[in-house]
């Protein structure tokens, strides 16, 4: 009797798993049969939908544990490819300008639209390096998000005190200095939060050191990738005195 009951339970469990496995197989087939998308197609795609784009590596965060997050851009728009599965040797091939085909699923976190669970293929073709688009005039407008993840520039920004201490910036990890840097800049009376993403630009990079040297009242030109975190929160890659 016990054997019969055990057999019934095993069969019931197997029947429960069939729909799940079928859904996963259907999702994999859907992703493999995707039609190549333009950036406009990608923007219009529903969240969690499979996506397929061709684009160019512009920068990437540190490789770690067979994963690497990539900032990518084409002539018609940009993409944030989150934690692409990749070996260390293969990651070394994804230098800025490299053309890649990417398949994955469209996702969103705190306003940042990204490609998740991605696979990639390196393609032949001339390299493409994006030129920063000046979006200073779009700060505080609904149009700014149209440039999400692109390499952008902000001109003539004034450094503000980050907090009540009067400091021009703050460490996420003040003791170890092994994490992001935060600072605030203003334009035309409005203040904005910017960030140096540690895994993109660590504490040995020029931009990290430049932010550490900022003083309240400095007027600077900035470049970086237009990341989004509950609003615009650019990952800054360059800080220079305003021209």
TrEMBL record:
Protein name: Uncharacterized protein
Organism of origin: Aristaeella hokkaidonensis
Lineage of producing organism: Bacteria, Bacillati, Bacillota, Clostridia, Eubacteriales
